[in-house]
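Data card: per-record layout.
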Amino acid sequence: MTDFKVDSEKIGMGNKQIKVYSLLDVDSIGLPGNIRPYTDVSVNNAVISQDLLADIDHVPGVDSIVYNQVIFLPNQKREMMKLDKKKNRHASIPNPNNQIAVEDINAVQNELARNGKILVYAHYNLIVQTSSDYDFQKVTNSLENIFARYNIHISKRAYNQLELFVASFPGNCFRLNQDYDQFLTLSEAALCLMYKERQAVGDDSALKCYYTDRQGLPLAVDTSGKEGKKRYTNNSNFFVLGPSGSGKSFFMNTVMRQYREQDTDIVIIDTGDSYEGLCSYFDGTYISYSKEKPISMNPFKVTDAEYNENFGEKKNFLKSLIFQLFKGAEFPTKLEDAVINQTIVEYYEEYFHPFEGFNEEERKEMKTKLLLEDKKNGEYDKFEEELEERYGDEYEIEELEYKKLSDRDKRVSEKLKAVIEDKAATEGEKEVAQRALQRLTPEVIENKYLMRIEHQIDKIERQKKKLKVTELSFNSYYEFAVERIPQIMKQQNIQFNIHDFATILQAFYKGGENESILNNDIDGSLFDEKFIVFEIDKVKDDPVLFPILTLIIMDVFTQKMRIKKGRKCLVIEEAWKAIATPVMADYIKYLYKTARKHWAMVGVVTQEIQDITSSPIVKEAIINNSDVFMLLDQSKFKDKFDDIKATLSLTDIDCKKIFTINRLDNHEGRSRFQEVFIKRGQDGEVYGVEEPPECYINYTTEKVEKEAFKFYRKQLKGSYQHGIEVFVKDWKDSGLDCTSFAKLVMKEGKMYNQMNKK
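The structure for this 758-residue chain is written out next.
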């Protein structure tokens, strides 16, 4: 504050000038009869509420505005006495104006008496600073327009500029003159004129993603909703919705960049090269499907630890995978589920605990099961009828072999059985022993029932010994299942479409078209890689491969999630549509719920409104298990937004905020940006996504821009970072927008800094 020059209109300070606008003229109070603390504003055909004085923060041409709000609390008894005197004075001269004044004072006194309100003296002024050559009339016009919307008329007679300025110093408000700088009103009316907007505050969190508030000031936002001091939710899984052209890919690149910079392991399933640049920047692993080099893994491979600790979850994943191959989007029957479940359990049991034969206890259990099976199919009833004819009503099946036998005959019977079961005995010896045994126990052997049970157990034992599993892969499972399922069908007297099963799955077996997909061990280094992108755009139209690849990649993330410490994130772009089927619903639920327990988050990204309104699987398996929603510009969906509102459980206030995305007059002085609505639990706000040009060129999905940047990198033959720096410098030097600059580079076939060189 130097070189003061004060007149009745303004105060000069060197190359700056200020003017103090008193909000009200006490001689002609320009306040409406009713006032409220907020006003309604229409933005993009949506009505939102904002502070009554919110607009004063963007008066054009102004360097700074200070809004002073002073409220004096006078002696209430004295002020009431003054009001009574004033009322009596007006009442003494009967004319319409005085009568109105009396009615107004009565109304105020009733309000004070009935509702306990208090009288206050209030003063408000605006100190506006501009450059010395700026015309204050423009500021005056802007302020008058702002306040006129609320029927408030600012004072045009604030000639005591120095007095108002000095009285505005902190602690110096007693200098305000009560006669012409203060007005009497009710406390609540005075509070309505106070500035109630506040500066948005970021999150104090271990995970900080930087965006801006709606004025362009940077904020740290905990997009997980659960890692900060303020916990918005206990579930960090997220769902992103943005129509084509809304900047969805750009926004997701900002999220992934900031997650990776904060030591998060990231796995992305993409269908459009959206993350190619970011993956290169972080020197990650970019795996793109091609027929020459298909993505191949071995989801059937299970470690000892996984088998002992988490086999139930792995089994459910493999069931989902097998039914995706076998049934597609069709839901399996309970019988099919039971059969496949049994083959998976037995397959891994044989690998980890190879079968050597039944012990006595297991034979008894098998005997019980086979008896139960005979009871189910009626064979046991036939046998019981014959037994009733011979022994009457009282008998025990287990004791029939020893019925009416002496101890000596029992010992002989055991020896004869041993001869019959002895593989070294000749056929003649076995026949002699069988006839002798029949003489000892004619009723049992004559019906050959229990002997048949024993033979069945022996046969099952031989079959199990043949089912060897020496390595874990789809090939060995296919061989196991194709042999085992017919046995299960016969043993349990059930029907299973084994021929269709074998034929459909054969494409993934040895010699099949897709043999490599499920039979090659994954590169072990992927478990240590921090940033992995699986690009499967080339198979997105393949109804068989697309969901299978999506599933096995999700399984890779699941293993990574369990094994690795630290934060993990899986992002499924449009590929999630391939697995949004009834078959996959349970597995998706499992993945979402399990992620919460392992410091992991799963995010689904989509652009079609129908994707979230037409599929019950999306709502039940994905939406209900996501507590963080990120929505970009929804203008295209406004007429159909009720379905989205209901599906995502958005409030009316949320919707009003969403429809102001990219619609506010907040672009002045800011770089290129777009806005996004982020809701964590019950808390939703709109934030700005502002990134420097270095990030833009890394995120861009525009073909010509990507090609130009690749050309620069090829020419420079240096680090990725160096390529970005040179490209952006030339882009700025050119004065062109990025697309025009890229077209120029590709047309000339030269870097910009070489175009003018001879």
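Known properties of this structure: The chain has a mean pLDDT of 84. Residues 211-297+522-694 form a domain with the Rossmann fold fold (CATH 3.40.50.300).

See the next section for split statistics.
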